[in-house]
Design brief:
The protein has about 110 residues and is mainly α. It has a single domain (about 1-110), classed as Orthogonal Bundle (Arc Repressor Mutant, subunit A), CATH 1.10.10. It has five helices and two strands, in the order H-H-H-H-E-E-H. The relative contact order is 0.15.
């Protein structure tokens, strides 16, 4: 089962709305902490703490570039989550298809004399 391959730290890190928005922003490319902090009404140190949680979970990596520490996503950290969500989506889709078939059958029965 794919759920055993999920890292709970990844799920916990993504549970925070600010961290989720940081990940969404980093999906567009590398950013500095200052660039990531700009759209939020929180301090840069608070953003740094959020980035630390994302880094500890393996979602974000930082590199040293002189005085800058640009951040980027580590997409491999999200691969297990993606695989699990894909499996879940397929399972739910099959269940909805079965439900649609049952509902269609019930509707046919109510309209048949």
């Amino acid at each position: 089962m794919l759920i055993e391959s999920l890292n709970p730290a990844v799920l916990a890190a993504l549970a925070d709305p600010i961290r989720l928005r940081i990940v969404d922003r980093l999906a567009s490319g590398e950013c500095t902490v200052g660039e990531l902090a700009a759209p939020f009404d929180v301090s840069q140190p608070a953003i740094s703490r959020h980035i630390r949680v994302l880094t500890d979970a393996g979602i974000v990596v930082q590199r040293v570039d002189g005085a800058r520490r640009p951040c980027r996503l580590a997409p491999e950290s999200l691969a297990a989550l993606d695989a699990w969500l894909t499996q879940l989506r397929k399972t739910l889709s099959a269940q909805y298809d079965r439900l649609d078939a049952v509902l269609a059958e019930l509707e046919d029965e109510t309209h048949d004399p």
